[in-house]
Amino acid sequence: xxxxxxxxxxxxxxxxxxxxxxxxxxxxxxxxxxxxxxxxxxxxxxxxxxxxxxxxxxxxxxxxxxxxxxxxxxxxxxxxxxxxxxxxxxxxxxxxxxxxxxxxxxxxxxxxxxxxxxxxxxxxxxxxxxxxxxxxxxxxxxxxxxxxxxxxxxxxxxxxxxxxxxxxxxxxxxxxxxxxxxxxxxxxxxxxxxxxxxxxxxxxxxxxxxxxxxxxxxxxxxxxxxxxxxxxxxxxxxxxxxxxxxxxxxxxxxxxxxxxxxxxxxxxxxxxxxxxxxxxxxxxxxxxxxxxxxxxxxxxxxxxxxxxxxxxxxx
Length: 315
Fold this sequence. Notes:
Layout: H1 2-19, H2 21-27, E1 48-54, H3 59-63, H4 69-78, E2 83-87, H5 96-108, E3 112-121, H6 127-147, E4 151-155, H7 165-183, E5 189-193, H8 202-212, E6 217-222, H9 234-241, E7 245-250, H10 262-271, E8 275-280, H11 295-310
Parallel strand pairs: 1-2, 1-8, 2-3, 3-4, 4-5, 5-6, 6-7, 7-8
Helix pairs in contact: 6-7, 7-8, 8-9
């Protein structure tokens, strides 16, 4: 690994030399890292919707040892998936040699590693806990880097009793900004999921992204979790967040139990010119797991069909 690190440092230094001292004076110390162009306001463009699946969909089998993460990656071939999202809870190790073996296995099977998903929570009232959250995110950023994953999913968490939403939002922004100082240098996006809790409203998600103000900040857009308001139903909130989505988590029902019109969802993503993965995150109610083993393949088949229908790719 020492030789690899040396090559990376050489390329970083060479890039800075080519850029020149004049550019460094204009941009300051950040000139050494190449900042990507943020294209989110460039208009919709042509949609490119690809099929994916989160390891969380197989969590029961991964946790009880029925399958391994290697099995999950190989299953993507049988399921004709374009990519997989490697939820880090189920990694048997965070040693680089193991993580690189998963990256190699995915490449040899032509399966993209969409991203990694960790459970780091950014709503922490104690400043020391927020510092711990930043350090935890950094650890998982390193894991994502070894996996070759371009993004890391993080969470906000629940609103603590006696705390205002505005205060909790400040904590999310503070923590994300600090963590992105690290992830951005590795070219890895931090993607805040609109999970249960503070981020179940699109306005909060959008405020965070706008205030963090970095091309390395995005939203893991789970279509199931938004709570409708008098002015915006679930679909309107999903549509508002699509321009900032790094990937989407798909299920066929809202948290309320009402069914989701997946055709309508795909139309929204296509109209926005979304380019990314529509990933199944199978999450049955307790006791209603897919015992027959047919529900997950059926849902993935529907995802693939909708991607073909509404995308510029026919995968």
